[in-house]
Amino acid sequence: MVERIMPEPFRIKMVESVRVPDKNEREEALKRAHFNMFGLRSQDVYIDLLTDSGTGAMSKQQWAALMMGDEAYAGADSYFHLKEAVKDILGFDYVVPTHQGRAAENVVFGSLVKKGDVIPFNMPFDTTRGHIFNNGGEPLDCVIDEAYRPEVQHPFKGNVDIDKLEAAIAKYGKERIPLVMVTITNNSGGGQPVSLENLRQVSDVCRRHGIPLFLDAARMAENAYFIKAREEACRDLSVAQILKATMDTADAITVSCKKDPLVNIGGMICSRTEELHNTFLPRVILFEGYATYGGLAGRDLEALAQGLREMVDEQYLAHRIGQVRYLGELLGEGGVPCVTPAGGHAIFIDAAAFFPHIPQSAYPADVLSIEIYREGAIRGIGLGALAFATPDETGKIIYPKLELYRLAINRRTYTNHHIQFVAQTIVDVYRRRDSVRYGLREGYSPALKGMKHFLVHLEPYDL
Ligand code: F0G
Known about the structure:
Layout: H1 23-32, E1 47-48, H2 60-66, H3 77-90, E2 94-98, H4 101-112, E3 118-121, H5 126-134, E4 138-141, H6 162-176, E5 180-183, H7 196-209, E6 213-216, H8 220-230, H9 239-248, E7 252-256, E8 267-271, H10 274-287, H11 298-310, H12 314-333, E9 346-350, H13 351-354, H14 364-376, E10 378-379, E11 381-383, H15 385-388, E12 390-391, E13 397-398, E14 404-408, H16 416-431, E15 438-442, H17 452-455, E16 458-462
Parallel strand pairs: 1-10, 3-4, 5-6, 6-7
Antiparallel strand pairs: 2-8, 7-8, 9-14, 11-14, 12-13, 15-16
Helix pairs in contact: 1-14, 2-11, 3-11, 4-5, 4-10, 6-7, 8-9, 12-16, 14-16
The structure holds ligand F0G.
């Protein structure tokens, strides 16, 4: 049953009109896009749930902060405002900005990883995985087994399996493991949280072996909110206190600030010691810009400093997490198979269960993207075989364990009515699922390891 909905804790001050393209326009748009959701123009879409990255609405305080940007090349006031906010909210003494999250990854992995290294993770996000490969390393998934079972209920499906982590350290040794990383929340596994208890255990293991622990902290405030709601020992702490305690487990974090920190562009690396911080600076200067702006304008740094303070607002988080859960509940009532429990930033539909008659080689998650766009001009994204299937050494295709379709909810952007429309549309597609009898094959396909689904052209064929 649908829980009590939380009304929006904001009112609308500036309006951006969106229109619903008619059925013919949608068909034309699909053809122009080669049936790839990344190929659609924004104006072809009514509700855009492609990503929650950089797509949120800034507050009036953030818009005001933009005007305070100090655009000095080095040592700008705006950098020091960011540094203060990082210290207050996250407790780190050192911060270097980057233009977005993957830029922070480029700097961290480029600075610390050498050929043959192994990086244990719960699960890395695609760009993180890519940067590890790019530097000759290999990520090793050590998430708990429940993460791979969409129907199983577990409060912290993003947790690291401590036995798997210990086994990895025993196998590869400290020499080949320059760092351990945990993604909070675990985007690739359905936006699922990691408990504070688990992070502390991971941190203890890392300390015992003298290996630094990094967090990919893009959705750290949502993770802290889940901890407050689900971890008995933390119930009486504020989200802000839990977030600080979460950060205390780590030596450093990379952040895509386009998510929880509520800005449209930006990233950062925060670290606890000057020594670690200094390790990153040469590469930041090479790829991003001088160490006090890292590829961002002074005004971006101001908006980010303000966003970091806003992201721990519990009314905002209750609405945000509640809105995502609401979508999950409406879909669940309509019988649509989803990853449960709902994640923090997105609902993931189990496309393999939605279209059991479409083989994984025919890309069911991407067929679902097309059908949901056809039905209601809503854009989500397939995260299954098209994105993750890779050939092994013999050329045999290894398919991912999960075939998911993601609806990522933009922060402070859509109302609960939009959410109802999304659910109705998808339930309508679900009711006619048996009549969807086609698969997709690749036309033009770029030779870009792990990044194919952004650019590939698709062609429907009858099954
Ligand atoms: N880490 C996580 C957990 C992410 O979800 C993302 C981006 C990144 C790192 C990279 O950050 O985009 O600022 O360079 N995720 C987006 C998404 C793109 O749609 O999930 P970025």
